[in-house]
Amino acid sequence: xxxxxxxxxxxxxxxxxxxxxxxxITEQEVTYEVGRLLYERMSRDPNYAVRLSRPTPETQxxxxxxxxxxxxxxxxxxFGADLFLSIHTNASLDSSASGSEALVYAVNSTAGxxxxxxxxxxxxxxxxRNRGVIARPGLYVLRKTPMPAxxxxxxxxxxxxxxxxxxxxxxxFAEGIYRGLNAYYGF
Length: 187
Hints:
The chain is α/β, with parallel strands linked by helices. It has helices at residues 27-43, 65-79, 110-126, 140-143, 160-168, 170-185, and strands spanning 3-9, 21-22, 25-26, 48-52, 83-90, 100-104, 130-135, 149-156.
């Protein structure tokens, strides 16, 4: 039976909840594209059934930050997802901050192990530093999802090198996430 993965492309094309900006790119554009490429890759694999939170670049979820987050969680529940996978970019006031992270409700969990697998594969392909799996139980999408949930911070939009890689080669991130999921599920 196929693993059902809800791919949440973090943030919205317009306010509310548009995400971070840096180095000439926006978070919502990066997350949309990486999610789209991951969806294309996974939909060709019979091991997975996948759904996107934002099927088009114009898809707007909710009318406030709270309703946007609720719409994402509801979408995963309605889909019957086995995994909620949220794609984001990180940002810092320190432009030298770099690398990828996975945020989960609790590190010692199914989500934590999935996050570790994703980071191993993604950082091997991108060359970005693996900053590890971090518990962030206060995040709405990690707290309110009944299935395992992993929020992947691809890289730092505030770092010129990370941002250029996310802009120029989003497929590397999508392929890394895909390979990480395959490694975890044993495909």
